[in-house]
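I'm stuck. Protein, please.
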Amino acid sequence: MDRQVALLRLARRLAAAAADKDWETLGRVDRELAATLPQLAAHGAWSPAEQRALDELQRAHAAAQADCLRETAEAGRRLGQMRESKEGWMAYAMNEEWQESRT
């Protein structure tokens, strides 16, 4: 396969998975990238067109990584809020249970 095409395809797949917040696919494409890139690089120096495709892939990877970091931080924030609200939820659940036991 043409190296430029392979690089651009990986870049598009990374960007699409990140945009869709499809973390499973993003992880799979990232692992594929880790396996494929050394194989592509082993074929010698990059042509100017291949270098541009590689640059695009690097930008897509950096953007996907930033998306992952943002989502991780957001998940941590939500978990923190849930942890802070735990006592209230427990009291509500106990009250509901108590109400049900009275009927």
Observations:
- The two ends are 71 Å apart (CA to CA).
